[in-house]
């Protein structure tokens, strides 16, 4: 069987028609590290870019064990019932280790993973956080162009992935457990401060009372934080993904956030800043590419790196020599 | 009063004599973002580089509330009693917010902060994690050149700072609390996997029994991790910084780690890799510097960034145009 290679126009046309097979293939293209694929992917993104930006991009984070997959399954099927088209992506820079759990994710999202209006894509594997971030951001655009109007972006990895996801979403939701005391210590202050909405999950059965107590503790803790620039006060809600309770209220709160942010112009400001951030990251990528693929650098770098490793030359001096030579020769 | 500006040779001579005043001034120089200071700092690092590398560099992390400052005070004074010279640095990329806690750190390290053989330096304020990392790494070299033979590097910020500290130390220690259950969820798996030694702090009074139970839980958890390349099995110890208990055992374990790593060659390999990492980070800095300080880029960047923010041009396309033009003109 011959694997027919589509042109970027053919990919774009398929995506805009909502063809799921082509969407999947195009995300695979985005995730490829081959030079030829990268060029094709760049063209594809240019084609579909005018058809993106309409979705509500929602980031979801929380410590392992908080029930992120079950929550996304529950929240996603609520949104599907409301007539939305829902796509789920994940940022997981440590995915080489936790590959198993990603396959697990799809099986744990049983309600949405086979729904015709939903699309669940495992995290791109391997590579640095920067690479994973770029791939996820581009996949998000492809899903938007394919007509998905709610994007759920899950963080799976260590600390930095929350920051990466925060940099690509409109609203950032922190899932919490009903026993607040010790957990409050475990959640890094920086993560709490990034959240637009806190949801105490597993507020069911015997845990309902505990969840109410936790809600009081977190509401109290949030009061200690400086006011946000937009004036939005992150609400603390309780829900049960298992019993499908509190999910509607949670979505209403997200809609209230959207309305308030849009009215004040913060929505567009944030997206503009995110686009500019992306431009700067791309500049860094391109500078690296031009530098490390230069023939002189290719020849000299390994020897210099070895000398640096042996302590024969300082790392800064080595870097300066190499960069200086490259700039002069350009 | 005229502020006399020292030459890089004068700074270096003062540091090598162990002059604390000049050490402090030189770290302030390192932390400066002024171009002229950056050049002087670069020269200074070149001068002192041959006199660095002898110290045992120990990273210390743990969630807020685990008692890092008290532990460092206790561990530091034990090391001082053993005749060591101890310097304490911190990596805190969020320090613009938590400035108060840094001043607090010094007062909480009462035993060591006024000791003639100890040096406690608050984290450099402001700037990106990259900037803070560079400044801390260079400060570490200055302290080593000044004769400090044990460096304690504390992580204070959000997730990423652990990764930054791990990239500049010989041994990485994770402090834990005696109630293991919930905490085990709160600690990101990636952090546990980076630790060379786990220490359950606050193992005193009524908590002693709990600490023993926690030790069993963590030892069990560690068994699930893949074996490290060096074959070292991170031990789980208990200690009380408050009652100065278990601190000697902890240091002996760090020494055992050092001996084993040095014998197998892993010690030097890790340091070589860290130096090479540093070289690559410096290359990125220099590429950015050359690019963003180019006159054409300075003129064109703001307008392009504005267009990207408004969605008139894609972020990738804008980046490519700008970088392409810069490379051609060079």
Give short descriptive properties of this protein.
homodimer, 330 residues, alpha/beta, Single alpha-helices involved in coiled-coils or other helix-helix interfaces, Rossmann fold, 3 domains, 7-stranded parallel β-sheet, 15 helices, 58% helix, globular
Describe the structure.
- The structure is a homodimer of 330-residue chains.
- Chain A is of the alpha/beta class.
- The first copy, chain A, has three domains: 1-51, Single alpha-helices involved in coiled-coils or other helix-helix interfaces (Up-down Bundle); 52-264, 3-Layer(aba) Sandwich (Rossmann fold), CATH 3.40.50; 279-329, no CATH class.
- Helices cover 58% and strands 10% of the residues of chain A.
- Chain A is built from 15 helices and seven strands.
- Chain A has helices at 8-16, 20-31, 35-48, 68-81, 99-108, 110-113, 129-145, 160-166, 180-186, 189-194, 208-223, 247-264, 266-292, 295-310, 315-329, and strands at residues 56-61, 86-91, 118-120, 150-155, 171-176, 197-200, 236-238.
- The longest helix of chain A has 27 residues, at 266-292.
- Mean pLDDT of chain A is 86; it is low at 95-103.
- At the A-B interface, helix 3, helix 8, helix 9, helix 10 and helix 13 of A face helix 3, helix 8, helix 9, helix 10 and helix 13 of B.
């Amino acid at each position: 069987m011959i694997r027919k290679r589509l042109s970027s126009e053919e990919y774009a046309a398929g995506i805009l028609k909502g063809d799921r097979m082509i969407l999947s293939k195009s995300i695979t293209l985005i995730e490829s590290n081959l030079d030829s694929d990268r060029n094709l992917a760049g063209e594809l993104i240019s084609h579909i870019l005018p058809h993106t930006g309409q979705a509500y991009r929602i980031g979801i984070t929380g410590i392992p064990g908080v029930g992120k997959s079950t929550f996304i399954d529950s929240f996603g099927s609520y949104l599907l019932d409301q007539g939305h088209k829902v796509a789920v992506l994940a940022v997981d820079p440590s995915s080489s280790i936790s590959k198993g759990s990603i396959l697990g994710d799809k099986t744990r999202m049983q309600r949405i993973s086979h729904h015709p209006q939903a699309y669940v894509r495992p995290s791109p594997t391997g590579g640095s956080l920067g690479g994973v971030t770029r791939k996820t951001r581009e996949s998000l655009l492809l899903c938007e162009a394919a007509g998905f109007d709610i994007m759920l972006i899950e963080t799976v990895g260590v600390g930095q992935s929350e920051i990466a996801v925060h940099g690509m979403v409109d609203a950032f939701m922190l899932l919490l457990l009903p026993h607040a005391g010790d957990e409050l210590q475990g959640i890094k202050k920086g993560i709490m401060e990034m959240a637009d909405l806190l949801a105490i999950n597993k507020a069911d059965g015997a845990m309902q009372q505990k969840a109410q107590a936790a809600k009081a503790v977190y509401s109290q803790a949030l009061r200690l934080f400086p006011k946000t620039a937009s004036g939005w006060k992150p609400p603390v809600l309780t829900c049960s993904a298992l019993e499908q309770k509190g999910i509607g209220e949670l979505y209403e709160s997200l809609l209230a956030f959207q309305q308030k942010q849009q009215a004040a112009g913060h929505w567009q400001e944030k997206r503009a800043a995110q686009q500019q951030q992306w431009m700067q990251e791309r500049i860094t990528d391109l500078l690296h590419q031009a530098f490390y693929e230069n023939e002189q650098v290719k020849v000299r770098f390994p020897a210099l790196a070895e000398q640096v490793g042996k302590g024969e030359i300082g790392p800064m001096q080595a870097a300066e020599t190499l960069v200086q030579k490259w700039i002069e020769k350009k």
